[in-house]
Amino acid sequence: MANSNYANRRMLIVSNRLPFSIDAGDPVTIHPSSGGLITAVHALLAGSSGAWLGWPGTDESEAVNEALAAYSRDGGFSYEPVFLTEQQRDRFYRGSGLVLHRDE
């Protein structure tokens, strides 16, 4: 039987959004999202030295990057933001993939 010990493996989560919302005001604040899936994934990811990749829901700035670094400092893993351009956001959230087609 193959060794099924995953303790030494790095976990990587990739999703369309990071599991929180960011208020990019002054100061930047981060509000964790809730839900069963997020809670379960956090428990698996904690202490894995892994990373959670996704769009943070805001534009990139030095203040946002600093807040993200501080937010993930003690979790045993990191949040890796994938910042999107306005065009990319429009195509994803209002693009043809979300348009409902009706048969005439």
* Computed structural class: alpha/beta
Count of individual domains: 1
Strand numbers in spatial order across the main sheet: 1-4-5
Q: Number of helix segments? A: 3
Rounded mean pLDDT is 82
- Topology as H/E string? EEEHEHEH
List the SSEs and their pairings.
Layout: E1 12-17, E2 20-23, E3 29-32, H1 36-45, E4 51-55, H2 62-72, E5 78-81, H3 86-94
Parallel strand pairs: 1-4, 4-5
Antiparallel strand pairs: 2-3
Molecular structure report:
A three-stranded parallel beta sheet has the order 1-4-5. It has a two-stranded antiparallel sheet with strand order 2-3. It starts with 11 loop residues before the first strand and ends in a 10-residue tail after the last helix. The longest helix is centred in the middle third of the chain and has 11 residues, at 62-72. By secondary structure, it is of the alpha/beta class. It has helices at residues 36-45, 62-72, 86-94, and strands at 12-17, 20-23, 29-32, 51-55, 78-81. A hairpin with a 5-residue loop joins strand 2 and strand 3 (29-32). The chain has one domain (12-98).
Give a quick rundown of the structure:
This protein is α/β, with parallel strands linked by helices and 104 residues long. The protein has three helices and five strands.
Supply database-style keywords.
single chain; 104 residues; alpha/beta; three-stranded parallel beta sheet; two-stranded antiparallel ribbon; 5 strands; 22% strand
